[in-house]
Amino acid sequence: MVVVWLLVIPLIGSLVTLAVPARASKGVAAVVSLVTLGVFGAVLAGAPSGVDWSWIPAWGVHFHVAADGLSLFLLGLTAVLFPLAIFASDPLASRSYYFWLVFLEFASLGLFMALDLFLFYIFWEVLLIPVFFLLSGWSGPDGRPAALKWLIMNLVGSLFMLVAIIAVAVIHNHQGGGLTFDISQLAGTHFGPGSAPWLFLAFLLAFAIKSPLWPFHGWMPDAYGKSAPPVTALISGVLSKAGIYGILRVMLPLFLPQFHAYQLGLLIFAAAGLVFGALMALRQQDMKMVTAYGSLSHMGMMALGIFSLTSVGVLGATFYMVAHGLMIGGLFLVLGMIENRTGTRDIRELGGLNHTAPRLAAYFLFFALGALGLPGLPGFAGEYMIIQGLVAHQLVFALIAGVVLTLAAWYMIRVFQGVMQGPVRQKTLRDIVATQVVWLVPLAGLVALLGVWPAAITTHAVPSLYHAVHLAKGGSF
Q1: What count of other Cβ atoms lies within 10 Å of the Cβ of residue 149?
Q2: 8 A C-beta contact, residue 448 and residue 377
Q3: Which class for 138: exposed (0-12), middle (13-18), buried (19 or more C-beta within 10 A)?
Q4: Three-class SS of residue 51?
Q5: Rounded Cα gap, residues 133 and 79, in angstroms
Q6: SS3 433
């Protein structure tokens, strides 16, 4: 029952932000997100974490939500990053801005908890609305085209997924399993050679667009580049995980035989995105776009882990989702501070900022080192597990991933040195203040903790991953 409060609190809280005076909306939004974080703490401590209520009996739809080992730490990632994004937001932003932020938290938590495929789709669609308004309303004059591109591309993927969801339920019903959308009951449904490839591709398209994975990342450059830094941190840190999570939660139980059949093509697809993102990051002169394309490359790394179809590779991808979300979210927030203080994101116009803003430089370096996979930080642990999963049977792809790690070090060090070191090209830069340190320290501490203790996540994730896979008939990695 506690997980229901993870939905009720941000949903009601989002409405409260519209009812209070504009000057109080940021404070209310922050309190709501912190209370939600506290409720997650209760779930993490072992409070009852699931409900299964009949919702639309005629359709076999249930309101089935739970926090298991696969979703638990994505819920934590969401509960941690949203208050940080609110703290980092402009206090003069309107009530509508904070309403959409808190409402987006509600939708994100619902998606990660939904165990009914119909309910999963509803939250999947609801996610589109707040992001659209956050992009169109608070991203400058070019925000609306970016918002429309986000909406249209994701709606196309959602349409294919909706058709596939209905088809899966109908096929399961015709095989005598009854009309249901419960993922655990749908797992193991037999799909014939005429339907299996199309259903598989329909789900994959929707999840690849949302992640995004190359070449379905068309919405990403505009959305990441135009959005306010806190919104960018949430899109990259939380929402991009929705697609990878969907592959783990929905596709592995339903389509494990198809994963084996198409494995080589899937690995090529993921490796191409991994390389493309890294090469594009090296070409950028905009510090935010370096990080954006680096994030695209990281999504390809997660996909490689899943498509390795090894237990350690899939586990590495699961861990890397959380680690990447924390590190990239922190990095985008720090870059936002630099942009707000200097008025530019062009690396060529920056330099030497560490002389006047040493604390800001220290946090920038910390999150950049995490993103490039420095040993001792969680990015390394996730990448190590993914490459370990590839080595045994897909050595070529393991070598590709290893080479790209070198490129990641190149583009992350390049952006840090270009902004923080070298000749001073800006006037005296104001360093981060105590109120910003208050929320940056816990985030950095959490990243450091996961770097030395990845078992905090992997121990809980292993049972859920094996359960998801073995729900499929004859399922095995």
Answers
A1: 17
A2: yes
A3: buried
A4: strand
A5: 21
A6: coil
Give the span between the Cα atoms of 469 and 107, in whole angstroms.
26
Name 31's bridge partners: none
In the 8-state DSSP scheme, what is residue 189?
Answer: -
Cα separations in angstroms, 435 against 88, 91, 432, 439, 440: 10, 13, 8, 7, 9
Q: Taking the complete model, does pTM exceed 0.70, yes or no?
A: yes
Nearest partner of 302 among 235, 390, 200, judged by Cα:
390
Helix crossing, 143-172 with 117-126: angle to 10°?
Answer: 170
Q: Decide the pairing of beta strands 61-66 and 50-56.
A: antiparallel
pLDDT above 60 (res 241): yes
Q: Which of 74, 72, 102, 76 is closest to 89 using CA atoms?
A: 102
Q: What is the pLDDT of residue 329?
A: 93
Q: Tens digits of per-residue pLDDT, 339-392?
A: 888 888 888 888 888 888 889 999 999 999 999 888 999 999 999 999 999 997
Tokens of 220: 């990403």
Cα 374 to Cα 175, 320, 444, 468, distances in angstroms: 50, 14, 14, 31
Q: What are phi and psi of 175, to 5 degrees?
A: -85, 10
Residue at token pair 């941690």: 80
* DSSP string for residues in 70-91: TTHHHHHHHHHHHHHHHHHS-T
What's the length of the chain? 477
- For residues 259 and 307, the answer to whether their CB atoms sit within 8 Å is yes
- The amino acid sitting at 319 is F
Residue 356 φ then ψ, to 5° = -110, -10
- With CA atoms as reference, report the closest residue to 427 among 365, 355, 359, 358: 355
Q: In angstroms, rounded to a whole number, what is the distance separating the alpha carbons of residues 5 and 8?
A: 5
Whether omega before 215 lies within 30 degrees of 0, making that bond cis, reads yes
Q: Is 50 buried (19+), middle (13-18) or exposed (0-12) by CB count in 10 A?
A: middle
Q: pLDDT band for 426, please (50, 70, 90 cuts).
A: low
List the alpha helices (DSSP H) in 227-377.
Answer: 229-234, 240-246, 252-261, 263-283, 287-307, 311-342, 358-372
94 touches 26 (CB < 8 A): no
Give the whole-angstrom CA distance, residue 10 versus residue 25.
Answer: 14
CA distances from 156 to 110, 122, 128 (A): 21, 15, 12
Backbone angles phi, psi at 474, to 5 degrees: 65, 20
Asked if 71 and 113 touch (Cβ cutoff 8 Å), the reply is yes
Q: Per the structure block, which two tokens stand in for 11?
A: 């949903």
Q: Are 125 and 87 in contact (CB under 8 A)?
A: no
Q: CB count, 10 Å around CB of 268?
A: 14
